[in-house]
């Protein structure tokens, strides 16, 4: 019996497809004791599940909990990872709940929802039913930004680099975890990374394992979020629960780099279906043994491949082959009702189902003729191994118990011990001889496979030599032509770029020549341009073009300077400063005090870092500035005289004078 908490649920009022939410009866089975809850809604049950974290939630029909597949997925997403949804009446082919109860020696009132919920919980604890699986054995992990970066401002690039760096760091941590997980368990994974400025925009990982086995959990921080989701199946899959004891099974195998394994019971119920990449022979044997004792090891091809034959010998099972090739359409038709994920699972399932169909009529006769008190599966097992139905029944019919008197003579006890020892040694020798024979057969198979591979290698080498002649030269020629075409295109782009730059330079040269002609004729005076009213810009102009006494300068942006910046131009002995916008008052006063004209709105003729101004326009602007400077000096002297007079009058009032 399954340990842990088990929930049995049955609908008590309403329907999952009705507009009004239904109510349920819940039976909680824990350590042999049952607690009943009546008329609960689904959200209340989910809160109880999150608290108790049951092993199973057992129902007789999954569509009592959800209206459709999408609603069922939503319900499963809200369950803890360790909780499984079980349909106790079976998978695709369901059996009545009352019949299952009678087979397990208890009865219940099928018209009482509480008793029906308890029956579901009890049957699940006995391993009856199928786990409802809506997700593939694939898990998607996505590492991305936790927030949108937006348009941003001056610090946008620094913020973007910080977020992308955090995504990259978290992605590397998760990849390290997945690498260790892959090495320890054999489950592989793939990754897809989108790079961004300073790191990763996102990283996506696909792990070939169920979500509850993957050691990465969803998380979120200020900059990074990690989502972990299972991949939905196309259709619902029912996985039988493991029951107590070893069943006899029919196993279909599709060998290769990726091994497909399908395991059926003698009732035709699918116990296991999966394809595993890079699995070893020992791991295949161990996996099959977990689901029971294989009576038949089947394959979909004839003759049986050596890899399948090795598995068959490990269990001393009967070989199952179709006797010919199975067409792809037949495989699809056989496997479609059970569902499969890839061709490997389809071929393995088709092999197992073909073998089951071959024995189905024999199994029906056995079920009719075998006594009820006997284990019918054992009878089927012996029939598969070559016995008739009567012989199989006779083999497993228990013989009457014969009581023997225990002899107490010492010599008889010693004789019995010696006989027992001889019997054990004979059994051990027989077992060793069987192992030696199996190993010899295996060595012979390996030698045959090695010879086949050597012949294949020789054939391929001859083929390569033939191909290398003409094809190799053609490929090399095409490659060289491609390289030259790309180089020609690159040079053409370079020529276009240089031509465009040369054209621009010619235009600039023409305009500079015009400026020089005006200077020579006395029609224009040279003006040196300073990009901004700052120490660095003034020093750049000094270093590049020189700044000497009598030069005219033009400040493109006069807004940032002060008295100290102005004093640099004053010390350079410039003739005048030309501006197009207002200058700070303190800097303007410095120029006024130094007698250097500051001319605003003077029209210039400009080419890059050079410009000219007409002499007449300059003389008029200087004359106007001098008149304004003279007026400002008068006003300043008047203000000083007035200040001195006010101060004298103040001192007289105080009696100081």
Describe how the helices and strands are arranged:
Layout lengths: L5 E8 L9 E8 L2 E8 L1 H11 L3 E4 L9 H9 L6 E4 L9 H7 L9 H13 L4 E16 L10 H30 L3 E8 L2 E9 L11 E2 L3 E17 L7 E7 L3 E8 L4 E8 L3 H10 L2 E6 L7 H10 L2 E3 L7 H8 L7 H27 L6 H9 L4 H8 L13 H59 L1 H52 L3 E6 L4 H11 L6 E4 L7 H10 L3 E4 L5 H10 L3 E3 L4 E3 L2 E4 L1 H39 L4
Helix pairs in contact: 8-9, 9-10, 10-11, 15-16
Q: Explain this structure to me?
A:
This is DUF460 domain-containing protein. It comes from Methanolobus halotolerans. Pfam families: DUF460. The protein is an alpha/beta fold. It has 5 domains: 123 residues, Nucleotidyltransferase, domain 5; 88 residues, Alpha-Beta Plaits (2-Layer Sandwich), CATH 3.30.70; 148 residues, 2-Layer Sandwich (Nucleotidyltransferase, domain 5), CATH 3.30.420; 41 residues; 120 residues, Glucose Oxidase, domain 1 (3-Layer(bba) Sandwich). It is built from 17 helices and 21 strands. The strands form 3 sheets. Strands 1, 2, 3, 4, 5, 6, 7, 8, 9 and 10 form a 10-stranded mixed beta sheet that branches. It has a 6-stranded mixed beta sheet with strand order 19-18-17-16-21-20, sandwiched between helices. It has a 5-stranded mixed beta sheet with strand order 13-12-11-14-15. A hairpin with a 3-residue loop joins strand 11 and strand 12. Helix 8 packs across helix 9. The chain starts with 5 loop residues before the first strand and ends with a helix. About 2% of the residues have low confidence.
């Amino acid at each position: 019996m399954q340990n842990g908490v088990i929930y049995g649920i049955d609908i008590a009022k309403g329907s999952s497809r009705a507009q009004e939410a239904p109510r349920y009866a819940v039976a909680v089975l824990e350590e042999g004791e049952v607690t009943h809850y009546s008329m609960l809604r689904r959200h209340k049950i989910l809160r109880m599940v999150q608290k108790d974290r049951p092993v199973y939630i057992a129902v007789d029909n999954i569509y009592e909990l959800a209206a459709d597949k999408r609603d069922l997925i939503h319900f499963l997403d809200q369950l803890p990872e360790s909780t499984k949804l079980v349909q106790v009446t079976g998978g695709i082919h369901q059996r009545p709940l009352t019949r299952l109860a009678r087979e397990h020696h208890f009865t219940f009132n099928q018209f009482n929802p509480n008793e029906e919920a308890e029956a579901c919980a009890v049957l699940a604890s006995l391993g009856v039913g199928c786990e409802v699986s809506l997700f593939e054995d694939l898990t998607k992990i996505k590492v991305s930004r936790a927030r949108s970066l937006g348009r941003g401002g001056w610090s946008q690039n620094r913020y973007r680099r910080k977020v992308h760096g955090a995504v990259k760091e978290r992605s590397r941590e998760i990849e390290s975890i997945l690498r260790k997980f892959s090495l320890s368990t054999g489950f592989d994974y793939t990754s897809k990374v989108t790079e961004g400025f300073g790191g990763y925009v996102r990283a996506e990982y696909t792990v070939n394992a169920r979500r509850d086995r993957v050691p990465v959990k969803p998380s979120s921080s200020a900059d990074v979020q990690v989502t972990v989701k299972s991949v939905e199946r196309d259709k619902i899959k029912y996985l039988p629960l493991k029951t107590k004891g070893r069943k006899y099974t029919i196993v279909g195998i599709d060998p290769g780099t990726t091994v497909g394994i399908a395991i059926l019971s003698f009732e035709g119920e699918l116990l296991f279906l999966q394809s595993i990449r890079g699995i070893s022979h020992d791991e295949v044997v161990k996996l099959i043994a977990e689901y029971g004792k294989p009576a038949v090891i089947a394959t979909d091809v004839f003759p049986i491949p050596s890899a399948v034959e090795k598995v068959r010998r490990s269990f001393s099972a009967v070989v199952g082959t179709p006797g010919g090739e199975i067409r792809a359409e037949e495989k699809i038709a056989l496997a479609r009702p059970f569902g499969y994920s890839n061709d490997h699972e389809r071929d393995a399932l088709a092999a197992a189902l073909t073998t089951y169909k071959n024995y189905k009529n024999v199994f029906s006769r056995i079920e009719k003729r075998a006594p009820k008190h006997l284990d019918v599966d054992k009878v089927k097992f012996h029939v598969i191994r070559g016995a008739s139905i009567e012989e199989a029944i006779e083999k497993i019919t228990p013989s009457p118990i014969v009581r023997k008197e225990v002899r107490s003579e010492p010599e008889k006890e010693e004789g019995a011990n010696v006989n027992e020892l001889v019997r054990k040694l004979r059994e051990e020798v027989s077992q060793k001889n069987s192992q030696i024979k199996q190993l010899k057969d295996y060595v012979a198979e390996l030698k045959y496979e090695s010879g086949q591979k050597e012949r294949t290698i020789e054939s391929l080498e001859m083929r390569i030599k033939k191909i290398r002649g003409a094809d190799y030269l053609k490929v090399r020629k095409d490659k060289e032509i491609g390289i030259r075409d790309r180089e020609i295109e690159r040079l053409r782009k370079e020529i276009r770029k240089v031509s465009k730059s040369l054209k621009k330079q010619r235009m600039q040269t023409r305009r500079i020549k015009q400026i020089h002609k005006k200077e020579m004729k006395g029609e224009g005076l040279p003006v040196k341009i300073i990009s901004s009213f700052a120490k660095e810009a003034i020093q750049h102009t000094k270093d590049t073009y020189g700044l000497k006494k009598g030069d005219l300068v033009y400040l493109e942006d006069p807004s940032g300077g002060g008295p100290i910046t102005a004093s640099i131009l004053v010390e350079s002995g410039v003739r005048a400063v030309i501006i197009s916008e207002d200058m700070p008052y303190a800097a303007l006063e410095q120029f006024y005090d130094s007698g250097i004209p500051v001319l605003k709105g003077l029209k210039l003729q400009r080419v890059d870092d050079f410009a000219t101004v007409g002499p007449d326009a300059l003389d008029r602007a200087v004359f106007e500035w001098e008149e304004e400077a003279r007026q400002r000096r008068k006003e300043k002297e008047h203000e000083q005289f007035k200040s001195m007079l006010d101060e004298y009058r103040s001192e007289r009032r105080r009696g100081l004078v």
